[in-house]
Design a protein that fits this description.
418 residues; alpha/beta; FAD/NAD(P)-binding domain; Immunoglobulin-like; 3 domains; 5-stranded parallel β-sheet; 8 helices; 27 strands; 33% strand
Amino acid sequence: MIRDDIDVAVIGAGPGGLAAALGAWERGAKHVLLLDREEEPGGILKQCIHNGFGLQYFDTDLTGPEYADRFWRQVMATGIDYQPRSMVTAISADGALTCFNASAGRQQLKPKATVLTNGCRERTRGNLAIPGARPAGILTAGTAQRLVNINGYLPGRRVVVLGSGDIGLIMARRLTLEGAEVLRVAEILPYAAGLPRNVVQCLHDYDIPLQLRSTVTRIIGSPRLEAVEVTHLDSGQTEIVECDLLMLAVGLIPENELARSSGVTLDPLTGGPRVNDRFQTSQPGVYAAGNSLHVSDLADWVSLEAHDVGKQAAAYALGEQQEPVAALDVLPGDGVRYAVPQQVDPRGEPGPVTFSCRVREPMRDVELGLWSGERRLLRRRERVLVPGEMVKWTVQREVFAQETAPLRLTAAGEPFCA
């Protein structure tokens, strides 16, 4: 039996899913179904006990669990239907969802609109293909975070961190506070990948060395990790570092398996779906937001984006969203790694369009440009931009309403090592 009484289904109950469900409800969707594979809502927020959440969305400084709790209280005050322990495995061409629930078993759901907010996953050792045995003591930063903050288990005493992503930086500090010795953070790039504030607060403040242009090239030990070989890329010199925990913080990837298997077109630059300025994917009625679309540096950005996308999905479900008139591609130009959304309707409903992008390298005295072909439509100045920090640029649609050439976002400035 297919359940077809759902206006908007939201897949994932992290910071994006909670906000998308609220947005859909506030827009007028009568039946919003929030699906999550875990028992409790909140996603990764539940294990992020550090503060720094909520400054943009709630205008206050919160820990991850406090941030999730605020959202959950708002959800409980509505008629949103929350269904935990539910895994969506497929989206058919007509928008039907195949869902497996721990209590109800296999379900067929036919919402009028669906929002993908199923987050992201960490790159693993398998993505890096580091030579050596497969001993205990090699963990992603997120796994280490869960073991320490949720399970109360310290997974190592002498730690090498590979990669300078934000979770790795935060966990370097966390492990230090728990009594472990973090020997170094090795980063293959000539600059830190995480936010500058995390480099200062998590490494510099605790005298944890950051070793740039370096990587782990061999795993040593069995059945437990005993050491790693660290190679300095510029000199070619190698060093054996004795440790019992190698923590990987080498980047995040949008959780795109559901979108990919369902035929949604993906962007090779972000790893997430391609979307228009309403955040609708290539499949009508299927929307994407947050880390399942493109990895954000702040949970607040995820929530703010998803809240608006939930409203767009509700408008579609209620039959109040007009079909796009035209489509201009949005491309990353010089100095820009990617741009979201990947398409805009120049003659769509009046109002602003927010572009998200990241620069390719740290730059000072930066000039951002929005171009149509060879003609610059807008420029914007920024003192400093780094790849770890997402750039948000809100532009009125009238700026490109008469354009026919693809739009490009560019960034030019003085490179430096952050």
